[in-house]
Amino acid sequence: MKEPLTDELLEELRESPDPVKFANKNKITHRSLPDYLQQLLDEKGLSRPKVIAEAGLNATYGYEVFTGKKRPSREKVLPIIFAMGCTLQEANRMLQAAGVNELYVKDRRDAIIIFCLDHGYTLMKTNEELFRFGESIIGQEA
Q1: Which residues, other chains included, contact 48 with Cβ-Cβ below 8 Å and sequence gap of 6+?
Q2: Cα–Cα distance measured from residue 142 to residue 140, given in angstroms and rounded to the nearest whole number
Q3: Is residue 46 exposed (0-12), middle (13-18) or buried (19+ Cβ within 10 Å)?
Q4: Which SS3 state, helix, strand or coil, does residue 86 take?
């Protein structure tokens, strides 16, 4: 299911006489991380085991993230983003659903990650770029 653009929704909200009717009509709710992960798996035709393996996550931990038993840090969500081949918009939606900071272009490390996402880099290639620029690689907790 293709989601409407944020700008389109914002314009519709501004023209709406009632925010509750707007939210109900557009099914605006809090998006849970497990729900969004499942949506992306379905849309992209991916399997959970393959994504967990490509993200380099422990299988048990990965399943707990996908089922909502664990709340992952930003550094654990980023590998999932690359394993799922997410766009920047999908990546930021996933980070938001996880309750962590979205990628921010004014942050040097985030800018490199955004560049790598936009250019279709793998997690390994992205980590090589981060290392090359003296930034911490994805998956390293601070």
Answers
A1: 41, 62, 63, 66
A2: 6
A3: middle
A4: coil
pLDDT digit string, tens, across residues 31-82: 799 999 999 999 999 999 999 999 999 999 999 999 999 999 999 999 999 9
Hey, what are 17's tokens? 């006489």
Closest CA to 72 of 126, 111, 43, 32: 32
Instruction: Measure the CA–CA gap between 56 and 99, rounded to whole angstroms.
Output: 21
CATH assignment of 31-102, among 1.10.150.240, 3.30.160.620, 1.10.260.40, 3.40.50.720: 1.10.260.40
Instruction: Name residue 70's amino acid.
Output: K
* Euclidean distance between CA atoms 61 and 97, whole angstroms: 18
